[in-house]
Amino acid sequence: MTSASDVWRSPGGDHFRLSWSQEAGPSRVTLRPAVYDADTGQWSTDRNALPIEIDPTVFEETYVQVPRERLRDPRITRLTGLVNELLADYERSTGRPPADADAIRAALDDVAEIPGEARKRRHAAASSAARQGFHRGRGR
Length: 140
Description:
alpha+beta
């Protein structure tokens, strides 16, 4: 089952999101061009571009769903880029990588997991509050 938030790659390498349209009817699939933001790791629909309509059979046979990526904090992405540049500069100037390069990259990967972990904690807290009635004004 697909949803409008899914991103699909065309045979030509372009990316699209499904767009539900009453005019297209069941015999056509409507797609809107999508653009990728490397800083956040998220796709967004290009609302200025015209949608395209294709045959459902062609869509199913030739379009490939793009796997979802975890949310990324742009600050962490920027930090990772800067650290990678520093490690590359060090290797260029000395001819060898720093002894602790693997530890640095592993620590950056741990930091990159923080947004996902924080989102899970917020969801758990909101679920707990809803079960306890805080959203209905019945605090315990």
